[in-house]
Amino acid sequence: MASVPAIGNAALPDIQAEAPAIELALQEAGITGLRYPITVHLRDGSQHHTVASVSWAASVASDVRGVHMSRFVELLHARRSRISVETMPALLEETRERLGATGALATFAFPLFLERTAPVTEEAAFVAYDCVLEGQLSLDATSGALTTLVPIKSLCPCSREISDYGAHNQRGNVEMRVTFDLNHGEGLDFTDLIAAAEEAGSARIYSLLKRADERYVTMQAYDNPAFVEDIVRSVAASLQPDSRIAHGRVRVVNEESIHSHNAYASVAW
Amino acid sequence: MASVPAIGNAALPDIQAEAPAIELALQEAGITGLRYPITVHLRDGSQHHTVASVSWAASVASDVRGVHMSRFVELLHARRSRISVETMPALLEETRERLGATGALATFAFPLFLERTAPVTEEAAFVAYDCVLEGQLSLDATSGALTTLVPIKSLCPCSREISDYGAHNQRGNVEMRVTFDLNHGEGLDFTDLIAAAEEAGSARIYSLLKRADERYVTMQAYDNPAFVEDIVRSVAASLQPDSRIAHGRVRVVNEESIHSHNAYASVAW
Amino acid sequence: MASVPAIGNAALPDIQAEAPAIELALQEAGITGLRYPITVHLRDGSQHHTVASVSWAASVASDVRGVHMSRFVELLHARRSRISVETMPALLEETRERLGATGALATFAFPLFLERTAPVTEEAAFVAYDCVLEGQLSLDATSGALTTLVPIKSLCPCSREISDYGAHNQRGNVEMRVTFDLNHGEGLDFTDLIAAAEEAGSARIYSLLKRADERYVTMQAYDNPAFVEDIVRSVAASLQPDSRIAHGRVRVVNEESIHSHNAYASVAW
Amino acid sequence: MASVPAIGNAALPDIQAEAPAIELALQEAGITGLRYPITVHLRDGSQHHTVASVSWAASVASDVRGVHMSRFVELLHARRSRISVETMPALLEETRERLGATGALATFAFPLFLERTAPVTEEAAFVAYDCVLEGQLSLDATSGALTTLVPIKSLCPCSREISDYGAHNQRGNVEMRVTFDLNHGEGLDFTDLIAAAEEAGSARIYSLLKRADERYVTMQAYDNPAFVEDIVRSVAASLQPDSRIAHGRVRVVNEESIHSHNAYASVAW
Question: In this complex, is the C-beta atom of C203 within 8 Å of any C-beta atom belonging to chain A?
Fold first, then answer.
């Protein structure tokens, strides 16, 4: 490819710093959909190499035309090896400083892999839990949000009751999102949400099951039938007493095995 | 396949009508991800055959175990040929009655195809606009929401200014969501949102352009450089004076042609 | 937006017609990912409004730089209301003429909605079958291909056998692709493939089931356990004798309800 | 959840080992869509933590009903930290042994992150390249395949030529797939494919560009206009002389910034 004579940054005008044609403050301007290798740190000290889809933004004052988007990528590259609830406040504070903004927000969506052992043979393998870590800094608050999607097995109580034998069952997903004060979220972590959801389905889901395990899970699910409504209520009842949670939402989606569409239920508080 | 002796509905127990183990009211229980052929009617009388992804739900009282999911599909099958802002209140009212619920909500997500003519040759072809029509009925309100995604072309003002020639440009998407009182949304329609967005980019996007049109669009984009922040402000300034809109959100995402990730900006009011 | 003085097509140079820097013939150059409203005609005379994702291409000779992409969109806009196996040869022939090419190919991917009645109550609703219609014209052949994805319910024979009660079951998808001589594909249609697949699962999948139907489907599935391998063999045995099919491939994917990953099997002939 | 009395594997019947109802050999039966944390090793000795979507299968003889799916997950869990072209033959051989099959195949699809430095400021950040590593073992061959998707920037030669100023440009993706004899693929690696593609676009794509870099890339793209056809030819001309490659396919897709659909070209040899 033909080459281009280079000019340094300092010699080039800063168009983003101009005044905008329309004076309107924006809550968010930044980058989204950036895939990046990150290391997530959980409260138990464990570290997890994973791949995130990252959004990162700052607020824009009414008299500023635009943000300098490359700074978010510089911040991400520098901080990628230590992404956690604990590091989020400092990350947002640095964003605000580097962008000269009053507000900042960052979102990391990634699969978290946790080792699970089969219920009878105890063979180990990883299960993927889709997680989202969000942080937001504004003039008067520092809030965080955790979202986790937990795959479960559900078995239909109606189908079991009305049929002479068998019962339809299927994959379900429990999606939980909780918000909290980032400065007072002591101990809150994805694993809290995952534990609440795995107790609530008809059976857990595993990546590796031998025949003895398959028998166990099949019968366990038949013994614990649950509608989407039942599962939502069970998870919500488990999370609602937690005083660290400012707002919560539980949504369960069952991939009904008698339909191509899904059944769902949700509750927010 | 082996056959099963049939028993009528009336002879089977109604498990959903049972009392739940946990007494907790749910805002939503229903179906989601059901693809269905529908006909969308716009305010100008035009009718559009399209394919929707449908969610439909009702609230669940604290003393009822679950909803009867098949009723949503019956309603959809009966009403599929006339989906519009105007028919939404009756559709929600019927949902509430059939499900014996105090709340109801329905969401139709579909591509809307509008014919567009090329700027010079005036050749015609369809452009797809992703739309979402939502309605919600609660004890004290009947609210609606329209969401539209409008593809545009954006050309970077910074790139143009700092380069001796050329400027990077790319596809962008303007996503607008407005909520309104379903009983007082006179005349509000997807086409209002689309018009606001198509004025705000560096150039419109077409499905069919001949060489003379391509020249026109190329130069028009160069003449109208716009950051995501500029486009958001322009669309918001156009929609904010509309008193029918209760809440609005504009989000613009540029698929930056110098990166694999996107730039975005958003504002809500 | 600022306007641009227009110049007609005829006054502009034709860059695509230039000689390429590297003399290499290309099998395909065209458009892809174009969403368009089309009407699909089946052999039984039925017409189906749907939304397609369209790819359309022509071959490029070694001494020609590029194709004129807008011509595919012109052809699509003109022919959109009559897309079928029967109209494919003429569509390809016209493509070849308009593009001045020796080869042409077109692909339409769309959901086909067929009305299905519940097994006991006989209530009707649409089921979506993802279909792909492909045609290819080269110097010495006119070939077609039909691909259909049929959702089914599968119940695991192993789980049923090893458990004291219950059996895990789930959504499955039967994907069939068959190629044939477009000039001698008499009567071959998506419905042939769909029928073969719906016989092969543990039970069919419906969009609308009342309680009596749910009981029927639950017990029918328990009575007809089938591994992915069983289903593939059953569908293949049904399609292989059809002498109109030049090449076939059957692939079944089960969305295992005891795992987050899928089980699959496939055979090609 | 209620618990289930456990029975060991040995006491349970092996349904998969039964004779099938239809005696038909299957090329593939296994797992697909399993997300797993893996470490990819490249020929230069570098190691890359990433997340893969894994498919793993074995052939099924005509007199065997099904495969034991859990064995693929056991193999993956044991071998996940050393996935590479070099380890593929042993991995396939072990699969064949553990499954008692004549054929085996494994596919790992993952983003590979390589550090790239901006052309002027030389700031570093990761770029994601979607890669697929495939291996297949049959009675008479051990073949491998590498697929890589390389994001590039393309600038339209026609638009540049016919316009008084500016030129439309956009993201493009170069997809290359090459097959080779796994026992004689000395030195072949994803980085060979990536290098070929990055030379062929109008400009490279980066995750981090400062203003001086943006200027460079903008002008470089304007200086190097290229149709999808041009890019395909350039990449193919670069790869075709490589005698290690048995079969190759290059496909370039441009996300046209004047349309919502894409332009593409492809060649196979």
Answer: yes
Mean pLDDT of A213-225: 97
CB contact under 8 A, A261 and C221: no
A116: helix, strand or coil: strand
B2 burial via Cβ count (<10 Å: 0-12, 13-18, 19+): exposed
- Please name the residue that has the structure tokens 């390589």: D114
Residue C256 in this model has a pLDDT that exceeds 70: yes
DSSP D154: E
Query: What pLDDT is attached to residue D22?
Result: 96
> Does residue B153 contact residue B214 with C-beta atoms inside 8 Å?
no
Q: Which residue of C has its CA nearest to A155?
A: C168
C49 Cβ under 8 Å from any chain B Cβ: yes
Rounded to whole angstroms, the Cα distance separating B96 from C91 reads 49
User: Alpha-carbon torsion B189, B191, B197, B200, what sign?
Assistant: negative
Q: Tell me the C-alpha distance between D251 and D236, whole Å.
A: 9
Report yes or no: D135 and D144 within 8 Å, Cβ to Cβ. yes
Report the residue count for chain C. Answer: 269
Mean pLDDT of B159-181: 97
User: Which among C220, C227, C231 has a CA at the least distance from the CA of C161?
Assistant: C227
ipTM score of the complex?
Answer: 0.96
Q: Mutation test of the interface with chain B: which of A67, A70, A257, A261, choosing the one with the most B Cβ atoms within 10 A?
A: A261
CA A260 – CA B34 distance, rounded (Å) = 7
- How far apart CA C78 and CA C61 sit, in angstroms, is 26
Q: Neighbouring chains of B at 3+ CB pairs within 8 Å?
A: A, C, D
Tell me which of C211, C213, C235 to substitute to probe the interface with B (most B C-beta atoms closer than 10 Å): C211
Query: D184 with D244: CB under 8 angstroms?
Result: yes
DSSP string, B15-80: GGGSPPSS---EEEEEEEEEEEEEEEE-TTS-EEEEEEEEEEEEEE-TT-----THHHHHHHHHHT
CA B166 to CA B160: how far, in whole Å? 6
Q: Are B26 and B60 in contact (CB under 8 A)?
A: yes
First to last CA, chain D: 58
B124:C35 CB<8 A: no
B186 pLDDT band, cuts 50/70/90, is confident
The reply to whether residue D215 touches residue A7, judged by beta carbons under 8 angstroms, is yes
The band of B78, judged by pLDDT with boundaries at 50, 70 and 90, is very high
Among B12, B36, B77, select the one facing C211 at the smallest CB separation.
Answer: B12
CB contact under 8 A, C212 and B4: no
Predicted TM-score (pTM) above 0.95: yes
In the block, tokens 């490279």 appear at D204
Instruction: List CB contacts (< 8 A) between B198 and chain D.
Output: none
One-letter amino acid at C247 equals: H
Determine the residue type at B256.
E
Which residues 88-117 of A are in CB contact (within 8 Å) with D?
111, 113
B66 touching C (Cβ < 8 Å): no
Chain C touched by A259 (CB under 8 Å): yes
- Across the interface, do B165 and D219 touch by the CB < 8 Å criterion? yes
Q: How many CB pairs under 8 A join A and C?
A: 124
| AA identity, residue B194 | I
CB contact under 8 A, B2 and C220: yes
CB contact under 8 A, C212 and B111: no
Decide if C67 contacts C30 (C-beta within 8 A): yes
Q: Rounded to an integer, what distance in angstroms lies between the CA atom of residue A47 and that of residue A82?
A: 9
Q: Which two tokens stand for residue B220?
A: 């028009």
- The torsion angles phi and psi of D154, rounded to 5 degrees, stand at -125, 145
Contact with chain B for residue C220, Cβ under 8 A: yes
How far apart are alpha carbons D106 and A148 in whole angstroms? 30
Kindly state the tokens that stand for B25.
Answer: 């009211």
